[in-house]
Amino acid sequence: MAEEFTKEIPRARRRPNCRPALYELLSLGERELRRAFLKANSRAVEGGTSLVAPDCPSPALYRLSRGWAIRTRFFPDGRRAILGVYVMGDIVGIEHALLDHSADEVVTACAATVQPIESNALSALMTRPATAVYLAWLLSEAQRRSDSIAAALSRLEARERIAMMLLDFQQRLRQRELIIPGSYNLPLTQQQIGDYLGLTVVHVNRMLRWFRSERIAYVDKHLVIIKDLERLKLLAAGTDRRAGDSPAAATKAPPASGAPLAELAAFTRHKPNRPK
Amino acid sequence: MAEEFTKEIPRARRRPNCRPALYELLSLGERELRRAFLKANSRAVEGGTSLVAPDCPSPALYRLSRGWAIRTRFFPDGRRAILGVYVMGDIVGIEHALLDHSADEVVTACAATVQPIESNALSALMTRPATAVYLAWLLSEAQRRSDSIAAALSRLEARERIAMMLLDFQQRLRQRELIIPGSYNLPLTQQQIGDYLGLTVVHVNRMLRWFRSERIAYVDKHLVIIKDLERLKLLAAGTDRRAGDSPAAATKAPPASGAPLAELAAFTRHKPNRPK
DNA sequence: CGATTCCTTGAAGGTTGTCAACGTTGGTGG
DNA sequence: CCACCAACGTTGACAACCTTCAAGGAATCG
Fold first, then answer.
1. How many domains does chain A fold into?
2. Which residues of B156-184 are buried (b: 16+ CB within 10 A; e: fewer)?
3. Cβ of B10 under 8 Å from any chain A Cβ?
4. Given this model, what pLDDT does residue A175 score?
5. Burial grade of B123 (CB within 10 A; 0-12, 13-18, 19 or more)
């Protein structure tokens, strides 16, 4: 499965929460960028191919038309963190649309096909208003993903992070409409999963075995099979730490959007910094 | 100190690593946005004021001309993560320039002054090419910060994260030229620091006491005094876990930019996924 | 089939979280 | 002015989560 992926996806229909005033401009920008990618000649590469290197002058922008890629950051003592995982259809290197070099390395995680837009063409594209806005939109999408991962790294424990990851990939692949429900191919090693979620290989392995023994999800040989989607969602949301032990569900989030307060003039004030 | 902050900072001179072709456009966009902020009337608010609320329709864009703010995400069971800390001069809500609502809450961490651009004006601004590009640039700056924090949450231990945070704030404040070297005001509670770095209050407290006992930095009563900048930098970089114990400094990062490989045609391949 | 990479498992220890209590501070009101 | 209160800071004991260390098994490839 997962063959060369060429047909155009009508992606415009799902652009959730976009400011209405910008919708037209964004669609135009998307078309402009897509056209640029079509002009680029596809290139098949093996797994482990470096697309962006740190300290590389003027990296290009890529569209991953097939395969997976990861963005890695290295610490001087050898520790490493994977800051992003790209699936087929994603655009790699958006953060370099304005910066002319990267702090991280992007490599393909398996055999892949990329459509590159080289540096000069990219600079030219950025001067087009619609493309610029569309790239800003892609950037804010990327930011949203980063935020979710940061929150998970910050406050979720290992099994919750893994649940979140499995669910996230499943949803992203389903958006691209290339998934049979409840099962997909995950070409990451356990070491890479660990680097992505801030865990060691050993512990990732143990947690994956736990997921299997609990009959929540099977992850084996780069194949993910989700058995209990509900349980997975509970874990990923951070609602399952001790089978929902909060007796009074005590003062959970903020007043839970009780009042739509922020009418620019209506600054609200809540004395205690934390809802406790 | 830290009084109302009105004088224009010549910020253009430091725009590191920007694509040359976009420099002009960016400067223009910066001026346009600054003009928009000048037209907005400043507003002084207390600490704990909510600037952006989750599920709030059409949040505004703010410039924090004085004070600090934090962006918080809540988990259903009460855990919380601080996904961003804004200091005076920062722009809050960039991620909503294109999205019309937020997943997080932004509140001021102390008395502050904000200059709001309300939603409609913002939508209009985004249709201006230069402003759009400038906002994209701000977004990629924010992404860089998020990446650093994510990497730290993923792979650095508590004291290293705290070192990174103390250093980061110091550098950001110094960029704004409102700091006497080695000392600044940090209006966050230890709980908030914990939420930012993925730690508990208790452990933040222990680590701060460790920093003091090691004479690296004093953090007390919202005042930070850096005593040993070098040590702090070592810790923050992740080079100090056991006083530099790596005997052969074995295969640290990737080949360390040995070859500038990425000439678009020169895809490199390194078999092992990890340099070990 | 050696060699390499990846996966798996166990034991031991360290970093961090949890629980619980007390000290400190700043504001409020009698 | 002092008592009180709430939020914040501090400390200790203990437990849990996760890492480290170590070693063996499974799969892939030339």
1. 2
2. bebbbbbbbbbbbbbebbeeeebbeeeeb
3. no
4. 86
5. middle
Q: How far apart are CA B137 and CA A202, in angstroms?
A: 39
- Tabulate helix, strand, coil % of chain B (nearest 5): 40, 20, 40
User: Which positions of strand D lie within 7 Å of protein CB atoms?
Assistant: 6-13, 17-22, 28
Instruction: For residue A191, give both structure tokens.
Output: 């070491």
Helix (H) or strand (E) holding B256: none
- Within this chain, do residues A80 and A202 fall inside the same structural domain, yes or no? no
Q: Which chain A residues have a beta carbon less than 8 Å from that of B155?
A: 75, 79-81, 195, 198
Q: B88: domain range?
A: 14-155
How is residue A247 written in tokens? 């007796």
Ramachandran quadrant class, B2 (left: phi over 0; alpha: psi -120 to 50; beta: rest): left
Find the mean pLDDT for residues A72-92: 95
* Token pair belonging to A53: 């290197």
Residue type, B143: Q
Distance between CA B107 and CA B49 in Å, rounded? 5
Nearest residue, CB atoms, A238 vs list B75, B142, B251? B75
pLDDT at A274: 34
CATH code assigned at A194: 1.10.10.10
CA dihedral B2, B110, B146, A98 (to 10 degrees): -50
| Per-residue confidence (pLDDT) for residue B14, from 0 to 100 | 58
3-state secondary structure of B41: coil
* Confidence at A118, pLDDT banded by 50, 70, 90: confident
pLDDT one-digit tens code per residue, B200-210: 999 999 999 99
- The residue in chain B having the minimum alpha-carbon distance to the alpha carbon of residue A259 is B56
* Whole-angstrom distance, CA of residue A78 vs CA of residue B251: 7
A96 membership: H or E segment, kind and range: none
Domain boundary among B131, B155, B179: B155
- Output the distance from A201 CA to D21 C1' rounded to whole Å: 13
Q: Which nucleotides in chain C have some atom under 7 angstroms from a protein Cβ?
A: 4-11, 15-20, 26
Q: Is residue A202 part of a domain?
A: yes
Residue A14 — pLDDT band, cuts 50, 70, 90? low
pLDDT: is B165 or A261 the higher one?
B165
Query: Tokens at residue B223, please?
Result: 């005042």
Residues B224 and B143 in one domain: no
* φ and ψ at residue B130, rounded to 5 degrees: -65, -40
- Among the ranges given (A83-97, A144-158, B185-199), the one the predictor scored with the smallest mean pLDDT: A83-97
CB B166 within 8 A of CB B232: yes
**Does pLDDT of B249 surpass 90?**
no
Provide the terminal-to-terminal Cα distance of chain A, rounded to the nearest Å.
50
Specify the nucleotide whose C1' lies closest to residue A201 (CA): C7
Distances (CA, A) of B183 to A8, B179, B222, B225, B229: 55, 7, 11, 4, 11
Q: What is the C-alpha separation between A191 and B89, in angstroms, rounded?
A: 40
Name the more confident of B230 and B16. Answer: B230
